[in-house]
TrEMBL record:
Belongs to the ATPase B chain family. It holds the Pfam family ATP-synt_B. The chain crosses the membrane at residues 33-51. GO terms for cellular component: endomembrane system; proton-transporting ATP synthase complex. It comes from marine metagenome. The keyword Cell membrane applies. This is Uncharacterized protein. GO terms for molecular function: proton-transporting ATPase activity, rotational mechanism. The lineage of its organism: unclassified sequences, metagenomes, ecological metagenomes. Keywords: ATP synthesis, Cell membrane, CF(0), Coiled coil, Hydrogen ion transport, Ion transport, Membrane, Transmembrane, Transmembrane helix, Transport.
Length: 183
């Protein structure tokens, strides 16, 4: 029975060990006490030292964010002011450009009118000179024609005087005269 006795003793020891084993869901009382005491001490230290530092860091971060937002708002309003100033200057520049263009057009028209007015007397003088030249050429041509007609008439009269005035001679004389005037 020794094997059986030893086995019974081992089973009894094992049963005692199982009865004394802690519950895995509910901790032992001394662990609960020590855990609670550690938590309270750690909480007190954190509340005394860490919480103010965290609170200060959070407030500083909030102030920095608020400062950045205020700076962004002021930068935006300054940019809007600059844009309005730029738009006003641009409109002023466009107005000035339109005024300069209109002044240039007016000046160009005035220069054109002045040049036309300056050249018109010369044109009138040249026209008058051309008309005078034409009139002189016409007078010379008429004088030349008169001179030729006169010389032809004198030549015809000479021939009439030299020849007798019979009808055949007179017809021949007129034909010769007409032929010479035609040439």
């Amino acid at each position: 029975m020794s094997i059986l006795g030893a086995l019974a003793a081992a089973v009894a020891d094992e049963a005692d060990a199982v009865a004394e084993a802690p519950n895995p869901i509910i901790p032992a009382i001394d662990e609960v006490i020590w855990g609670t005491l550690s938590f309270l001490i750690l909480f007190a230290v954190m509340a005394k030292y860490a919480y103010p530092a965290l609170k200060k860091a959070m407030e500083a971060r909030s102030e920095k964010i608020q400062g950045d937002l205020d700076a962004a708002d002021s930068a935006r309003s300054e940019a809007e002011g600059l844009r309005a100033e730029y738009d006003a200057k641009l409109a002023e520049a466009q107005t000035e450009a339109a005024r300069i263009i209109e002044a240039a057009r007016s000046d160009a028209e005035q220069v054109r009118q002045d040049r036309i007015a300056a050249i018109e007397p010369e044109i009138a003088e040249r026209r008058a000179q051309a008309e005078a030249d034409i009139e002189a050429a016409k007078d010379r041509a008429l004088a030349d024609v008169r001179a030729q007609v006169t010389s032809l008439a004198v030549g015809a009269a000479e021939q009439v005087v030299r020849s007798s005035l019979d009808e055949a001679a007179y017809a021949r004389l007129v034909d010769d005269y007409i032929e010479s005037v035609g040439n």
